[in-house]
Specification:
Layout: E1 32-36, H1 46-50, E2 56-59, E3 66-70, H2 80-84, E4 95-99
Antiparallel strand pairs: 1-4, 2-3
The structure holds iron/sulfur cluster (SF4) (2 copies).
Residues 34, 51, 53, 55-56, 70, 75-81 line the site of one iron/sulfur cluster.
Length: 102
Amino acid sequence: MTLKRAQDLPEAGLIVEAGNAEAFNTGDWRTYVPVFHAENCIHCLFCWIYCPDSSIKVDTSGDKPQVVGIDLEHCKGCGICAHECPPAAKGKAALVMVREEK
Ligand code: SF4
Ligand code: SF4
């Protein structure tokens, strides 16, 4: 393999191929994973608003958007969604972080 010289590399901060983030499985280095308990979800969409990786799957085909799960190919396990998820179902939240077994 021939290594590239420094002057052959793209300048730092440049996006040489826009829109390619979806092609990368960024969920493979996660330590914790959100588990979705649909029965506790009130579809407030706080998780969707706060998720920094757009990993909350939402079905928009009906009258109101419905959270249907997590895109685990891209979720990095940051836990923000579970932190924001209200314990609305008799004190139980729909999103709970658990340690991921590999
Ligand atoms: S924050 Fe929790 S209750 Fe609200 S939509 Fe997301 S999973 Fe459902
Ligand atoms: S753990 Fe982080 S990256 Fe994964 S779905 Fe929740 S907010 Fe998004």
